[in-house]
Amino acid sequence: xxxASRPSWLTGSAHVLDLDDKYAGLSSDGIADLQSSxxxxxxxxxxxxFDRDPLLALHGDALESSEALQYVAxxxxxxxxxxxxxxxxxxxxxxxxxxAKSKARVVAEQEWCKLEPANDDDSSAGPRVDCxxxxxxxGPGRGPLFSSISSLNEALSAETEEVPRQAPAVTxxxxxxxxxxxxxxxxxxxxxxxxxxxxxxxxxxxxDPAPRKEVVAEARRLLSLSFSEDIQGxxxxxxxxxxxxxxxxxxxxxxxxGNKRCHxxxxxxxxxxxxxxxxxxxxxALLLENSDLKx
Length: 295
Hints:
Number of helices: 8
Number of strands: 8
Largest sheet: 4 strands, parallel
CATH class: Alpha Beta
Distance between the termini: 30 Å
Strand content: 5-15%
CATH topology: Rossmann fold
Strand order of the largest sheet: 1-2-4-7
Radius of gyration: 21 Å
Number of domains: 1
Shape: globular
CATH superfamily: NAD(P)-binding Rossmann-like Domain
């Protein structure tokens, strides 16, 4: 990001939020900078041992007493909705999650929203607080384009097996968001405004929730076109180990957070959010265009 496009609030120093054994949080200098910040973007998940948002648990007093704070973006998860059997959900939908991680997200959202006044009579009395419920995040080095070629083939093998398989009763949808669009949404929100209402939730997802197998198939198609060879016949050994970008070494994340499709209209309406990758097709194509993937 160059100087011309850098937001005016994006300045300051870096501090470590210590969440190790001592659970010390920020240093005194860090707390001072936090208390003088106009914008806070919180991306740290609730701590498993405490099931609380770590920044609020450690430094909630500093945030509550801040006279500078104008805006908070808390990155939550669409997992809070739980299972809807593939039906569409919006921000007003009941939160049906049953897993501990998602329940902790719900509590964190509620605690952050307490920082925002319940009405807009006195906008100087507290910050706007937006809870962005993110879908599965993909971007450079993260997602099906960056899995090993053999992993892509394994994910699609069920579609070509000759042994009869029982079709699933319900299509499993996955909500996704390109990392660029997360940044775009936060920038749009910091530069925009809305009436104070005690905090607000936004689904931060693209326009097309889709089964994982469809996304993997599109990634395989794009890679096949890019490399001009039959990827089905390739093995993991043929992938260059020097090119780390072609392999996704991240620990597999549990996807047992329910089946639903999330609307994103509220975010577009309130802040004029312009989505860069409205579907996984545009997102994968952009990533491939800007990557140095090679066999």
